[in-house]
Amino acid sequence: xxxxxxxxxxxxxxxxxxxxxxxxxxxxxxxxxxxxxxxxxxxxxxxxxxxxxxxxxxxxxxxxxxxxxxxxxxxxxxxxxxxxxxxxxxxxxxxxxxxxxxxxxxxxxxxxxxxxxxxxxxxxxxxxxxxxxxxxxxxxxxxxxxxxxxxxxxxxxxxxxxxxxxxxxxxxxxxxxxxxxxxxxxxxxxxxxxxxxxxxxxxxxxxxxxxxxxxxxxxxxxxxxxxxxxxxxxxxxxxxxxxxxxxxxxxxxxxxxxxxxxxxxxxxxxxxxxxxxxxxxxxxxxxxxxxxxxxxxxxxxx
Length: 302
Ligand SMILES: [Zn+2]
Fold this sequence. Notes:
This protein is 34% helix and 19% strand.
């Protein structure tokens, strides 16, 4: 059995009370809501509430209770950050006549293909890389800059609230989940960190766990993934395919197994080459090999 280290205090958010959620005032009528594993954000406007996503494990009841704890205004707009059910799977519980559901057209197409009644189709979509909306006096800018997570993924920028929502971009105070949060296109994932750093914001909401970030956290994640790439590049330069195959006793006619053990050896070597990140990120042992594998294949074929 694999033993994992406990998470350091700096990487943990607040304890979750019996209600099952914590609302965090992010300033200026903007609130984060988390149930511990997944989070999102809602904004009070002059006329109602704009909610980003409806995470499955928060659920409609808890989302409405969270919103109700700060305002009696109704949810007028729901913006989908991207298609994934863990982030929008409770949307059907909030759907009602008059609710505007906004998404990139690619997200709408993916929902249609999924045939999942938990995810109502958006009724406002846009194509291309950019859409600015005025919602009851608050400006929202939706930017689709690349497939850093999944096609149709959005940066949701609210300039006057100094807020950037970038769901599934990274984990605040931890390395990315699994393979760079399952980045559809790894070079776009690397580029996304630089793109995020160009926004003039104070808060960055990234969709998982119980902490909200800043641009400093974006820069930290950028530095971390750059270290992954540096380590992988050096490992690939020094770990030979034939040597790795021989060391693993791979039969001479099994080319696929050669490739498999070579990549495992590259990842193992890269893990040894990684500098220590324990003072800056929590849970550095959890997804290290997954992330190195994703970066290594990208370095190899992208
Ligand atoms: Zn996702």
